[in-house]
Structures are given as C-alpha cells and as structure tokens.
Design brief:
The chain has a single domain (11-220), classed as P-loop containing nucleotide triphosphate hydrolases (Rossmann fold). By secondary structure, the protein is of the alpha/beta class. The chain starts with 10 loop residues before the first strand and ends in a 6-residue tail after the last helix. The model has no long low-confidence stretch (mean pLDDT 93). It is built from eight helices and five strands. The protein binds thymidine-5'-phosphate.
C-alpha cells in the first residue's frame, strides 16, 4: 500500500496497559509542545471523531460483555479508519502535529497478545485502517501489572469492559507491548511509568526532546 502524503507535522503516539498513566502524559506533552510553538492536536483511540466516539461507546460498554474477539477487532479498526481519514491525515497534511492516546500497537497488544487473534490478520487490518500511516515516535509507558492494578483499585469510577478483564489478560498485554517495542526500537521508546507523574514526565520529555533534536533540530529554548 502506498504511504499517504505527509505534511511537516509530528505524529506521536502513547501506548501502555490500562492505568499506566499515558493519558496524563499525553496531556502534559500537548501543553509542552504548545509552549514550544507547535499547535498539537490531542486525540484518542478509539475515538477522536464523532463516529469513532460512538464506536468507542459500543466497545467499552460493560453491557457488551459477550462481544466476540473478531467483532472487537473489526470495531477498533473501523474506528481507526474513520479517525485516520477524517482527522489525522488532513491535520498532518496541514502541517499540524498530532498526539494520539493509543494507535495501532494497541490492537496488536490487546487483540493479538491479549485475545489470541492472528498477528498477520491484525497487521494487515492495521495497514488498511491506517492507510499505511505510521507514527514518527511511539512512547510506551511501561508499568508492571501489579502497579497498574493498585492504581486501578484506587480509581473509584466504574470500570469499562476492557478494564474489567482479569489480571492475567493485562499481564499478557504488557508482555506483548514489550515484545512489540523490541521489534520496533527505532520508533518505539519505553519509558518507566512506575514513579509519580512528574518523574515520568521528565523521562517522556527527554525522549521527545532527543527525538526532536535528532530528527528536526527544532527544539526551541
Ligand atoms: P483507553 O482507556 O486507553 O482510552 O482505551 C480504551 C480501551 O481499549 C483500553 O482498554 C485498550 C483498548 N484497546 C484495544 O483493545 N484495542 C485497540 O486497538 C485500542 C486502540 C484500544
């Protein structure tokens, strides 16, 4: 598949198991880049577009506990296809930068390593749903499942369908992510997320700054 035309915008994604802290880090990064003169668009997957947000509701509703793994996979890919074509590609073409809370690595981690679906099928569907687009930089916020589980217990809100899965499921996903990161060392950087928000942010910032210096020499003081 041909790569879609790209503008000068950066495309950065965050990955990690539930309760690893990536959403907070994505927000901090968005305001950091804003301060540096970028105009980043912060979006999430599944979601980020009206239709994709509707698909997100279906995916995460605890009422849909009997959803099959294949249905789940196809819904994540449908949400991604919509978001990529309607939001991500037009923004990148305008030269805007994007920070996306999850992208296609999540599908490999959750639906393959977690649910056991065939990796080749997932890679192929990821390719179709993203139009061949790949992030410039992916930050994997890594925490042992025991740490995420403690954070999960502290959260009083109702847990969604995926968050309700057993600890074993999340263990497989973490191992999957670490494997994916070893196979994509150039694009994917692992950041230890076990400490507090600020310490984790310092690590994320180091990764992003060094990426910017290496790739664009655009870090402004
Ligand atoms: P979030 O809570 O990080 O917004 O993500 C929603 C849930 O969806 C989370 O449990 C991870 C899961 N997920 C998948 O299983 N496959 C995917 O492709 C994506 C993007 C998310």
């Amino acid at each position: 598949m041909r790569k879609p035309p790209r503008g000068a915008g950066l495309f950065i994604t965050f990955e990690g198991i539930d309760f690893c802290g990536k959403t907070t880090q994505a927000r901090i990064l968005a305001s950091y880049l804003k301060g540096k003169g970028y105009n980043p668009l912060l979006i999430r997957e599944p979601g980020g577009d009206r239709i994709s947000e509707k698909i997100r509701k279906i995916l995460l509703s605890e009422k849909n506990a009997n959803m099959t793994p294949l249905t789940e996979l196809l819904l994540y890919e449908a949400s991604r296809a919509q978001l990529t074509q309607k939001v991500i590609l037009p923004a990148l073409q305008e030269g805007r930068s994007i920070i996306c809370d999850r992208y296609y690595d999540s599908t490999l981690a959750y639906q393959s390593y977690g649910r056991g679906l065939d990796k080749r099928i997932i890679r192929w569907l990821n390719q179709i749903a993203t139009y061949g687009l790949s992030p410039d930089l992916t930050i994997l916020i890594d925490v042992p499942v025991e740490v995420s589980w403690k954070r999960r217990e502290k959260e009083k809100r109702k847990k969604d369908r995926l968050e309700k899965e057993k600890i074993e499921f999340h263990r497989k996903i973490r191992q999957g992510y670490l494997k994916i990161s070893r196979q994509n060392q150039k694009r994917m950087k692992v950041v230890d997320g076990t400490e507090d928000i600020d310490k984790t942010w310092q690590r994320v910032k180091r990764v992003v700054d060094s990426y910017l210096i290496k790739s664009y020499s655009l870090v402004k003081e």
